[in-house]
Amino acid sequence: MIDLWHGLELLLLLAVANNAPIAAKRLLGTRWAFPLDGGVRLRDGRPLLGPSKTLRGVVTAVAACALSAWCLGLSPGIGATIGAVAMAGDALSSFIKRRLAIAPSGRAFGIDQIPEALLPLLAVQWELGLSMLQVAAVTAAFVLLEVPLARLAHRIGFRDQPY
């Protein structure tokens, strides 16, 4: 059974995945910011994902999560999986938002947070022995904490937008 400490570790890894691409953007500007969708637009004229989903962001999230997991005493492979699947969830969110005509970097509560937290937790569920209740609890905690923490990060100048 997952205890409070392990739940906090998972939340931390999800936060690392969520914020590592932002840190890379702040440090590197536009360098190596190759869009994941290659600039493709679908029949509706909207981008597949949008310009804020980059290969640099994915690589940064995977590497930062692997290192963070190792620092927490977890397998770097677990961390890399969480980082990679969190970015896949983030890309899925962007795809859905583009289809709903929400602008790149536009806010959509729930759509922005749930896939980025739920999918990586499901990906490591068996390896970490997580129950569905535990997966749901950590996902809910991420959803509830992400918005106020994003606003705080905006206030201190880390994020360009408060979401």
DSSP summary: helix tally: 5
Instruction: Describe the global form.
Output: globular
Strand content: under 5%
SSE succession = HHHHH
- Flag low-confidence runs: none
Helix content: 55-70%
Radius of gyration: 15 Å
- SS-based class: mainly alpha
* Major beta sheet summary: none
The overall pLDDT, averaged over residues, is: 92
Strand segment count: 0
Number of discrete domains = 1
End-to-end Cα distance, whole Å, is 33 Å
How would you describe this protein?
The chain has 163 residues and is an all-alpha fold. It has one domain (4-155). It has helices at residues 4-28, 55-71, 76-99, 114-128, 132-155.
SSE diagram, text form:
Elements lengths: L3 H25 L26 H17 L4 H24 L14 H15 L3 H24 L8
Helix pairs in contact: 1-2, 1-3, 1-5, 2-3, 3-4, 4-5
